[in-house]
Design brief:
The chain is mainly beta. It has 1 helix and 8 strands. It has a 6-stranded antiparallel β-barrel. Strand 4 and strand 5 form a beta hairpin. It is globular.
């Protein structure tokens, strides 16, 4: 029951940024992944900061109040929301709540928190939803399964050169 609530919450929070031009066929468990290449101007590096007083990466990984990485894939949801797969510059050590072993990941999923403020090139403290990729098999799959990520909270994304 708890897992179902967590997965449902993850989907609802990550679907905050919507592009109205897309169709509204919802698939609550997956979204299609569109690969980006180096010639795509949407490909850029970002720095993610924890927003003081909000849940974020630091709740799962003490000291992770600032991480950086490169957007490697754009994730388009059936509902029009846009997400991005971020390859971190440094491996992130994290711990799922109520679980003992320390885990590692090299990827995060981020998406604009507010539709009026999408994550895009030139971002400067854009508020984003952040999820930790806990099962890295998803990076090679044609669809993103929300069960393979943990919603971590919010952060601020800023483009870095």
């Amino acid at each position: 029951m708890n897992k179902t609530l967590i997965i449902a919450s993850l989907f609802l929070v990550l679907s905050g940024c919507q592009n109205k031009s897309k169709t509204e066929n919802l698939d609550l468990t997956s979204i299609e992944i569109g690969e980006l290449d180096d010639s795509n101007p949407a490909l850029f590096s970002i720095k993610l900061n924890t927003i003081y007083g909000e849940n974020g990466l630091e709740d799962y990984s003490p000291g992770a109040d600032e991480v950086s990485g490169k957007i490697v894939k754009q994730l388009d949801a059936a509902d029009g929301s846009e997400y991005y797969l971020v390859k971190l510059d440094k491996t992130l050590d994290y711990k799922e709540r109520d679980k003992k072993p320390q885990l590692k990941t090299d990827y995060l999923i981020v998406g604009g928190r507010f539709k009026e403020q999408p994550l895009q090139k030139g971002a400067n403290k854009t508020v984003v939803n952040v999820a930790i990729v806990k099962d890295e098999t998803l990076i090679n799959e044609p669809k993103l399964d929300f069960k393979k990520a943990i919603f971590a909270g919010m952060g601020e994304a800023t483009e870095i050169p």
